[in-house]
Amino acid sequence: MDLVIVKRALGVVSLGLGLAAVAAPRRFARFVGLTSDEETVAAFGAREIAAGAGLLSPVRPGPWLWLRVGGDAMDLITLGKAAGRENPRRGAAMAAAAVVGAIVALDILLAAHAALNRREDEAAAQ
C-alpha cells in the first residue's frame, strides 16, 4: 500500500468535507439528516480540516489517521442519535451513518497499517 497516495487522498477528502461543514453548517447538517446545532456541525468541520491539513503536511500519516478514527467515532455517535424516530430526516441520518461506518472500517485498517509498518509510515512523511 502506498501511504503517500492514501494520505493525500484522505487529506483532500477531509478538507473538502470540513470546508463544507464550516462554510454551510445548517445546509450540511440537513443534508446528512442531523438536527444538531450549527456550532456542533462547524466544530466537526474544523476537526476534519485539521485532519486533512495534517495528512497533507510532510509528517507521518499514522497519528492523523488515528485522529480520523476518533472523529469518525464522534460522527457515528451523533448520527446514531439523529437516527431516532422523532427525526423527520431519519433516513438521511441512517444513510450517512452507513457511509461513516464504512469509512471507520477503512480508517482503522489504514491507521493500523501505518502503526504496524513504521518504516512505511515514516517514508510517507513527504
In short:
It contains 6 helices and no strands. With 126 residues, it is mainly α.
What series of H and E elements makes up the topology? Answer: HHHHHH
Residue runs with pLDDT of under 50 for 5 or more positions: none
Biggest sheet architecture:
none
Gyration radius, to the nearest Å?
Answer: 15 Å
Averaged pLDDT: 92
How large is the count of helical segments? Answer: 6
- CA-CA gap between termini: 16 Å
Characterize the overall form.
Answer: elongated
Proportion of beta-strand residues: under 5%
| Count of distinct strands | 0
Q: Please give the share of residues in helix.
A: over 70%
- Structural class by helix and strand composition: mainly alpha
Give a written overview of the molecule.
The protein is an all-alpha fold. The protein contains six helices and no strands. The chain has helices at residues 3-23, 25-31, 38-56, 62-82, 90-116, 118-123. Helix 1 (3-23) crosses helix 2 (25-31), helix 1 (3-23) packs antiparallel against helix 3 (38-56) and helix 4 runs antiparallel to helix 5. The mean pLDDT is 92.
